[in-house]
Amino acid sequence: MMRTIPTHIPDDWLVRPHFNIWPSQKHRAILWLLANIVIFRIKQQSDLTLQDYIDFMHKIRWKLMRNKNGLTLVGNYLTLLDTN
Asked: What is the pLDDT, as a whole number, of residue 14?
């Protein structure tokens, strides 16, 4: 998927992703990101900005990391969200 032109990515890849990435923490981090993209698009209005999306992702990541298993689940693979 990462080497595919965005316009050629089928919509169902976001709903039913069929990929296997190693290590498992990286795989779970990518699934977490995809799931939250879908959640953001379904629950929000269409006039939101990129900054709204970034704020949403930071809030969701903060909730995940407050969980004692958060770092165990996804490791440090979500540190890319720390860059603004």
From this structure: 65
